[in-house]
Amino acid sequence: MRCTCGAELPLDARFCHRCGKPQRDEDIAREEIPVLIPAAVLHPALQDPNLPGAAALVDVSFSNKVALKIALLVAMMTILLRFLFGMGGPADILYLVALAVGGAYSVFLYKRRTGIELSILNGARLGWFTGFFGFLIFALFFSIAALAMSDPQIVVELRNQIKTSGVPEESLTQLLDVLKSPAKLAATMAVTFIMFTLAPTCGGALTARLLKSRPAANS
């Protein structure tokens, strides 16, 4: 038995001792090695596609409990910032930036928690959920404050506190004017809803785009 290089080989030889060429077909065949994602970086539900809730993690919707929990958590953080920033003027602009950052942070937390890279659409949805929950919390506090200010005695006390703190009394007057007019109240809540949802939606979509892995270039 001879190799193509001319070396004389025993009958049971699998490789040529001179050139290293395989002498059998099974040695020539190459097995494809699948690329596996380490299970440690994935959410437990994704480690077994047959488990309930595995498919829901891929899409951001009201059936995605992980997305809802993250959106609610970040929404509460943004509401806290709202009270810290105050209202009116530069504070509103600063809060718009905080809302956009909140949507971005939700997408970041979601990827860190589940190991899933959200599409731009799902990133926008998660940002919208964050803003939507933030609006609901804000509306709840606003309703409580409006109910309290229906008492004239509380309004008098607020005016006295505003005068002593040096804050312009016009802000309270404008708020009371809005509360007395259903049309102005509806318009104010509509603008607030757009502000709460648009900024985090844009932040979530942009972050999903930035966090998406780029395919490796062909060599």
Task: Reconstruct the topology from this structure.
Layout (H helix, E strand, L loop, with lengths): L24 H4 L36 H21 L4 H25 L5 H29 L3 H14 L4 H11 L1 H30 L8
Outline:
The protein is mostly helical and 219 residues long.
Protein architecture, described:
This protein is an all-alpha fold and 219 residues long. The protein has one domain (57-211). It has helices at residues 25-28, 65-85, 90-114, 120-148, 152-165, 170-180, 182-211. Helix 2 (65-85) packs across helix 4, helix 4 (120-148) runs antiparallel to helix 7 and helix 6 (170-180) packs across helix 7. The chain starts with 24 loop residues before the first helix and ends in an 8-residue tail after the last helix.
The geometry reads as rod-shaped
**Fraction of helical residues:** 55-70%
Number of helices: 7
Count of DSSP strands: 0
**What is the terminal-to-terminal distance?**
39 Å
Uncertain stretches: 37-42, 47-52
CA radius of gyration: 31 Å
Q: H/E series, N to C?
A: HHHHHHH
- Major sheet characteristics: none
User: Which oligomeric form is depicted?
Assistant: single chain
Mean pLDDT: 76
The portion of residues forming beta strands comes to under 5%
Helix/strand-derived category reads mainly alpha
Our count of domains comes out at 1
Name some characteristics of this structure.
219 residues, mainly alpha
